[in-house]
Structure formats: structure tokens, C-alpha cells
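Case study 2.
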Amino acid sequence: MLLRHEARVAVLDLELVSLTEVNQLTRNFVDLTIVCTHRSPDERMWMDALKAGAVEFCHPLDLRSILRAARSAGHHHLAVAA
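Prediction:
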């Protein structure tokens, strides 16, 4: 689905997707920005998500933080490409 829709951002709920899958997506789609969410995030989970390749880890209802992470990472990709 990521290839078909040429996705640049994926918001992944860690209750549905494992950190191993996050890491695989990071390796297979190097230009993909990954933002992870979880309903009860903690510091350990946040660090593990970042180590797996996510750019941010947010509560799923914190749309402002999710959008900010997706936008800032998108700007970074554009700057690197230029």
C-alpha cells in the first residue's frame, strides 16, 4: 500500500504494529517518515520507537504533535534532497 500510494508519512499505532515492523519499514522505505503512537506512551517505549526509526512518538489523540512531526520531517527530507 505504501508503494501504490507513494506515501511519504506513516502514522503507526504501536498497539497494532511491532517495533520490528517499524524498523523494517525504515530500512525498506528510506524516504518514509514514521510517527508512532500509543494510548499510554512511556519513556522506554518512546526511546525504542526512535531507535527503530520513528521520528516522533505521540499519544494518538495529540494530532498537533503528530502533524508537527510529519511536517518537520518532510521539510528535512526536502532540505537533504536539495
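The chain has one domain: 2-81.
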